[in-house]
Amino acid sequence: MTPPGSILIVGASAAGLSTAEALRRHGYEGRLTLLDAEPHLPYDRPPLSKQVLAGLWEPAKARLRSPAQLEALGARFVRGDRAVALDAGTRSATTASGRVLSADAVVIATGLTSRRLPGQDGLAGVHTLRGLDDALTLRTHLAGARRLVVVGEGVLGAEIAATARGLGLDVTLAGLGHTLLGDQVGDVIGALLGRLHTARGVRLRLGAAVESLSGENGRVTGVRLATGDPLPADAVVVAVGSRPATGWLAGSGLTLGDGVECDTRCRAAEGVYAVGDVAAFEHEGLGRRLRLENRTNATEQAQVVAANLLGADRPYTPIPYFWTDQYDVKLQMHGLPAPDAELSVTEGDPEQGRFAAVYREGGEITGVLGWNMPKQARVLRQRSLGAWQRSQPLSSA
Ligand SMILES: Cc1cc2nc3c(=O)[nH]c(=O)nc-3n(C[C@H](O)[C@H](O)[C@H](O)COP(=O)(O)OP(=O)(O)OC[C@H]3O[C@@H](n4cnc5c(N)ncnc54)[C@H](O)[C@@H]3O)c2cc1C
């Protein structure tokens, strides 16, 4: 196959930029354009809820690449302009400012949009955290705030609660689920995380629906639970999940479900690929469609998309993986265990704050967890979940 003469990448963050870099590494010499709605140089998101929010890192430290490295890519970067439409047939995107960008191939890497609560807009002091500007606004607000309520018991909510406690705020975390991160790590580890947060002074209101946000004179004053209990606050963070940023693809001709639906090669249509948080791909090893919201996936999937753009025929068959840092705990999760999978500790001791564990369903291992034991978890992962990778395509050079 002749490589496309030009490639347009929409979304120039972890997944989009990695795709561009992998293309050049594989010797691609054609025209590359990266379009992003944000004005900033590409930056990494994991530090936003941790080091950047804590004030330990200035924004420049979260940059994915230096200006010189970006320059060396030999690509055209169009920043601060949002794609508002795509014609998948002609592979041309229209932007908010009226630009029309056409190419022989298009890569969709637009990530996620945060979900919001009704009444959130127009109430000062209520935040979501997805981008750098969100993190800086929240950081400034927390510097002058005393009481924070975090709504959402997932990874992001738990990380923000941990960081805010580190800043000395009075923190309450409310969420519908009965344990922290229960959907992803199961109830046993979720309960352990809950104890960690409680020991550090976070008040948990789990299994509690948030009925409404309360406000006075346009400023948030707290949150009301469905039980009727008020949770007073001068800052509220809404971390109730995200949805794939596919609004701009309505009418594009692509199939949109929970993300941009693609095949096992991450191909959404002739000459159109999706990568990163927005991509809902068929996992050949697992025999089902997956969409992964984690940093490692953004880089790994980009390697496969780049290779396939250049004529390879490679399935993407990752072992799903994410990490999270909360207080002094570094947690790594490999695989996709069901919340009620049976958990057994294989090494270390939860009481000592270091252990590795496996999740079993019907006798089969479906997940591996490391709690301050990253190396041991990696070894277990390869031993127990390696078969998922089947024909793992590429080294991530
Ligand atoms: C606060 C935070 C903390 C995180 N912590 C962790 C962690 O500890 N561990 C972990 O594994 N993962 C973590 N993640 C997840 C990880 O950062 C994401 O999985 C990763 O950023 C996905 O990369 P992406 O390029 O697919 O999407 P994104 O990084 O979201 O990038 C999408 C890009 O597309 C642009 N865009 C969107 N719509 C348009 C449009 N219409 N036109 C043009 N451009 C558009 C956006 O501006 C953005 O730059 C975290 C995420 C957040 C937000």
Topology:
Elements: E1 6-10, H1 14-25, E2 31-36, H2 51-54, H3 67-72, E3 76-79, E4 83-87, E5 92-95, E6 100-102, E7 105-108, E8 112-114, E9 126-127, H4 132-143, E10 147-151, H5 155-166, E11 170-175, H6 182-199, E12 203-206, E13 210-216, E14 219-225, E15 230-232, E16 235-238, E17 242-244, E18 256-257, E19 259-261, E20 267-269, E21 272-274, E22 279-283, E23 288-290, H7 295-309, E24 321-326, E25 329-335, E26 342-349, E27 354-361, E28 364-371, H8 374-385
Parallel strand pairs: 1-2, 1-7, 2-3, 7-21, 9-16, 10-11, 10-16, 11-12, 19-22
Antiparallel strand pairs: 4-5, 5-6, 8-17, 13-14, 14-15, 18-19, 20-21, 22-23, 24-25, 25-28, 26-27, 27-28
Helix pairs in contact: 1-7
Task: Describe, in plain words, how this protein is organized in 3D.
The model is unreliable at 391-397 (pLDDT under 50). This protein is an alpha/beta fold and 397 residues long. The chain is built from eight helices and 28 strands. It has three domains: 6-113 and 243-309, FAD/NAD(P)-binding domain (3-Layer(bba) Sandwich), CATH 3.50.50; 116-240, FAD/NAD(P)-binding domain, CATH 3.50.50; 328-389, FAD/NAD-linked reductase, C-terminal dimerisation domain (Enolase-like, domain 1). Bound molecules: flavin-adenine dinucleotide. This is NAD/ferredoxin-dependent reductase-like protein. One of its GO terms (molecular function) is oxidoreductase activity, acting on NAD(P)H.
